[in-house]
Amino acid sequence: MLNDKKILVLGMAKSGYNVAKLLAGKNKIIVTDKGEQREELINELNGLGVTFIKSETGVELLDESFDLVIKNPGIEPKQECVQKAISLNIPVVNEMEVAYHYLPKNAKIIGITGSNGKTTTTTILYNLLKLHGVDVILGGNIGYPLSEVVDKVKENSVLVLEISDHQLYNFVDFKTDYSILTNLCPTHLDFHGNYENYANVKKKIFNHHTNTDVAFINQKNEDSMKITENINSSKVYFNNDENYYSENGIYIDKELILTLDEIKVKGNHNYENILAALVVLKEFSFDKNIIKEYLSKFNGVEHRIEVVDSNSNVDFYNDSKATNPTSTLTALKTMNKPTRLILGGMERSQDFNELNDEINKVICIYAIGEVTDRVYDYAVKNNIDCVKCYNLETAMEQIKNDTNDGEAVLLSPASASWDQYDKFENRGEEFKNLVEKLFD
Q1: Which of 17, 132, 184, 229 could form a disulfide with 223 if both were Cys (CB 3.0 to 4.6 A apart)?
Q2: pLDDT per residue over 41-57, tens digit each?
Q3: How far apart are CA 320 and CA 311, in angstroms?
Q4: Backbone torsions φ then ψ of 212, nearest 5 degrees
Q5: Could you report the per-residue pLDDT of 211-240, keeping only the tens digit for each?
Q6: In CATH, which superfamily holds the domain spanning 306-439?
Q7: Which CATH superfamily is domain 98-295 in?
Q8: Most distant CA pair in the chain: distance in Å?
């Protein structure tokens, strides 16, 4: 625990706000962010003795008198203030690393990471543990900072935490008891520099493991297998001969748990996420009837191939969470109608050629964001009609003119949203609002 420290919290958002509250009273804390903040939040922090200073980078606030920098996970390592902290030998960590030291020693931590599927896997596992009567708490990258929920954790609680690579990057002491790696593929390379660095950061989900800790690994994913060859964890595999899904259903330890017809959400990606969750669930409690009841009603995660209601004869899918081509490829695999694809966003050197195996389902691409020109070039190369729209509203207005009954419209950008939106959820909400406005 931190006492009598001078701390700079770099970036407000949920994580900065909550970690400042957690540390307030026993430390001198300055929070900085380049954006305007809600007045009531600033007043609350001020009342706790926390100072907020608006600054573009925070670099002018930092000097050798500080003991610690807690940075928002989304701030890149090369950011000016982060680099200054490193030059001054001031430790740079994140909110989750700090909050970890405030947890009861006997609490169990399940950490879920991966390039794709971690939010769905986290959601399914959390809800099933809860339905099985486990004292379980949800947190992490799924929207509940650990510092926000830490006071709810008891001695024998189970924490289910979605953990992103951005959070893993600044881990030092943080350790899970159970770690899930859903899969691994190139993404966030702008943040990490190259795929090798990204993969090594993902490997930190197994930090400090011994053979009493358990790693759950996707045997079907070659890169996941490669980076976990030398970890010290006890290993449990899924997508293998013991734990797998087939056209018949989901199997755990070669036993049929439920058929695919008993699962409401469809698609191989969903079956794989369910499989990962059930393999972990078996370590705690396992009632097939509870599992069947839950999965017969589970609609999937918002912004992940989410069906958007409309009165038109066109199917709309909000897949705003697809921030890399692998996720968009997954979405395209689920499409069974001629599809109009909204593609693009922030430039992160993403390779749209990864979509080639399923791109024949697309009758037109609507290019948006910083990568509009690259998306257009990709479409031309693959003989697919493409409209340069640059933003989502323009794309939807064009789609309104183009779309015919019996088609599908898919927002699956294969790109981060930060060129035009604070987060992918905002992009998805705008899409849903435009569907309601233009097509009802």
Answers
A1: 184
A2: 999 999 999 999 999 99
A3: 21
A4: -90, -10
A5: 999 999 999 999 999 999 999 999 999 999
A6: Mur ligase, C-terminal domain (3.90.190.20)
A7: Mur-like, catalytic domain (3.40.1190.10)
A8: 65
